[in-house]
Amino acid sequence: MEGSPKVDKKNFVGLPIPPAAGLAAAVVHFAPIPLIAYGEFAARYYTYIIMVLILALSILMVSTIKYSSLKTVGTGRRNLYLVLVVAAVGMLMFLYSRYMLLILSGIYVAHGFIWYLYNIIRPRPKRPVEQSEAQV
């Protein structure tokens, strides 16, 4: 098909809904008490921060920023290291779930935007000027 976009199985286009919901849930898991318990001024401040977070997640979900689907993780030669990293992260998540869930979901949400900025900022190699056959 001529007009259909190329399907990339390694990446999602836009932030998938589960990681966005995971970050929102990680924020609630990190601070499970009602916001008013922090005081009226702090509760108002935190409410605005959460509203901005939800707005940012909404924009990222409909954006064209690419996010890794993580389908190819572990397909290389270093599977032993991956098993050790997964075991270490699992142990840290068990011991410090409030922090680790927030960190891991925040890293996943941020990585697509960081790669997008990196691709904009990085210098691109200059293509050699092609000479037409008429000039030869």
Fold and architecture overview:
By secondary structure, this protein is mainly alpha-helical. The protein has one domain. The protein is 58% helix and 4% strand. A two-stranded antiparallel ribbon has the order 1-2. α1 (17-30) packs across α4 and α3 crosses α4 (97-121). The longest helix is centred in the last third of the chain and has 25 residues, at 97-121. The radius of gyration is 21 Å and the shape is extended.
Compact summary:
The chain has 136 residues and is mostly helical. It has helices at 17-30, 40-62, 79-95, 97-121; strands spanning 11-13, 66-68. 8% of the residues are buried.
Quaternary organization? single chain
| Coarse structural class | mainly alpha
Discrete helix count? 4
Helix content: 55-70%
Task: Report how far apart the termini are.
Answer: 37 Å
Rg from Cα: 21 Å
What does the secondary structure layout of this molecule look like, with pairings?
Layout: E1 11-13, H1 17-30, H2 40-62, E2 66-68, H3 79-95, H4 97-121
Antiparallel strand pairs: 1-2
